[in-house]
Amino acid sequence: MNFTKSIIYWYSTNKRDLPWRKTVNPYKIWLSEIILQQTQVKQGLPYYEAFVSKYPTIFHLANAPENNVLKLWQGLGYYSRARNLHATAKHIVNEFNGVFPNTYKDIIKLKGIGDYTASAIASICFNEVTAVVDGNVYRVLSRYFNIDTPINSSKGAKEFKSLAQELINKKDPALFNQAIMEFGAKQCKPKNPDCNSCPLNNSCLALSLKKIDALPVKTKAVKAKKKYFNFLIYITKDNQTILEKREGKGIWQNLHQFPLIETKKPINAKTLNDVIKSYTFLKNKKFQLSLYNSQPVIHKLSHQHLYTKFWIINIDKLEGNTIPITKIKNYPVPVLISNFIESFNFNLV
What we know:
Elements: H1 3-14, H2 26-36, H3 41-54, H4 58-63, H5 66-73, H6 80-96, H7 104-107, H8 115-126, H9 135-144, H10 154-167, H11 173-186, H12 205-208, E1 225-236, E2 240-241, E3 244-245, E4 256-257, E5 260-263, H13 269-277, E6 287-291, E7 297-300, E8 304-315, E9 323-324, H14 335-344
Parallel strand pairs: 1-8
Antiparallel strand pairs: 1-5, 2-9, 3-4, 6-8, 7-8
Helix pairs in contact: 1-11, 2-3, 2-8, 8-11, 9-11
């Protein structure tokens, strides 16, 4: 059986109708690929449409304030993607007059773009014969060819890239790349794939060896660390509160949050009350402290699990940089904060 032809034929009758498949505009292909990193199509599609609507060209994106870009990205997570997207848009506009580089070699030099994204843009937009290897492609190839090299190892990355490059349709690399990714997303799913309806079932080695569930292989990730977050939600009588912009490096860089006290273990109201009283601007001031959520909200990130409590502090007046509660939704915040804002409903305060 010809693997490449079978994948392409399957794609011709099973592909989803998606907006980025109707264009070879590198800006839109790049935008879709960045959004779909770490994000499923059904979640990413509304964001893609929102970005294309608000920033129809790379010039619009480059000229936008970063705060607005982060706000539009809110809820997708992995915010470095948005920061890099914005920075690269500025770079292309300022250095290349808005003309996107047209070779893999030049595309991969751009900030926030790795092998997969560079290959996707180069093949789809410029017909360069360079194979994409994402999670879907790893899964299809590891199963069909019974490859147990860990996909998150440098050896695995080279091995699978080389194999994909051998299989790619030289005359239409864009078609093959999109076909194999779609095949992995819809047919060769991570769990409980429908192997009976698979056009490759007669030649798939993993199926014949009953190893579908064992492939692809991944080396074990480092155990996520537990962190204990205590967010302080100040509310004054005239409905002012405090939001702080996170500085420095980190996944929430340049997003806003309520003042944070991080502890090594869960903290109770009495201990937190003593800590808050030590703050210079709260010395000798009366305030009322209450816990909003009796059970911590567990927010799981790839490398850490955040056990979060939201503490409400009612106080007559605050000095310094406060914002009106009515403006709180104008600021880009992590989804953890956004969910709290929606559930607490400040408008009722």
